[in-house]
Amino acid sequence: MRVLLLTLLATCSLLLMSCSTTVDDYADTTPAFELDKFFEGELTAHGIVQDRSGKVLRRFNVEMLGQWQGNQGTLEEDFVYDDGEQQRRVWHITKGEYGQYTGTADDVVVPATGKTQGFALNWQYTVALPVDGKVWDIRFNDWMYLLDNERVINRAEMTKWGVKVGEVILWIERKTPMTEGQEDKPAF
Fold it and tell me: What integer is the mean pLDDT of 27-56?
């Protein structure tokens, strides 16, 4: 009986792992997503925060400014929520080799690590978020998909103790034109 149970658990684990998407699944897609090129200059974004059942809890807009020098970048994000709350986050991002990126910000308690492949970026990090008068460490599994030179869709699953607590969906658009050499990427 114990062997049967262990075999069943192992089989279920393998099935779950085989269903998981990794950023490497997008290696052969285009256009290539390079954060230092897309997040350069002024951008604007519009998004929603949902609870674990999909109910929209908040809507927000973000004004962004990205600046890069070599492999070091800064992304300033100014959030305005539908209830009037304002937040500011300043990311400090480092571009590594082979599409690897790392990032930190004041409220990021576990730095972001991840990479790009093709038109996708996946990275994970933990943010200290105020919720109902308390601060919770919420883990983000963040996916960004480059639609074309001017637009990205961002979907982030939020978990606490491994349990999904919500999701953020964000539409990001460039406000400033791409600089010379950036606009040569095909849309599809």
Answer: 95
Distance of CA 65 to the CA centre of its chain: 16
- The position carrying tokens 């919720």 is 131
Largest CA distance in the chain: 66
Q: Tell me whether residue 91 is exposed, middle or buried, using C-beta atoms within 10 angstroms of its C-beta: 0 to 12, 13 to 18, 19 or more.
A: buried
Q: In this structure, are residues 162 and 141 in contact, taking their beta carbons and an 8 Å threshold?
A: no
For the chain, what are the domain ranges? 31-174
Q: Is it the case that residue 188 has pLDDT exceeding 50?
A: no
Spatial neighbors of 72 by CB under 8 A, at least 6 apart, are 92, 93, 94, 95
How far apart are alpha carbons 53 and 132 in whole angstroms? 19
User: What pLDDT is stored for residue 21 in this prediction?
Assistant: 86
Q: Residue 16 — φ and ψ, nearest 5°?
A: -65, -40
Assigned CATH topology for domain 31-174:
Lipocalin (2.40.128)
CA distance 66 to 185: 20
pTM for the whole thing? 0.83
Tell me which residue of 9, 98, 89, 107 sits closest to 45, measured CA to CA.
89
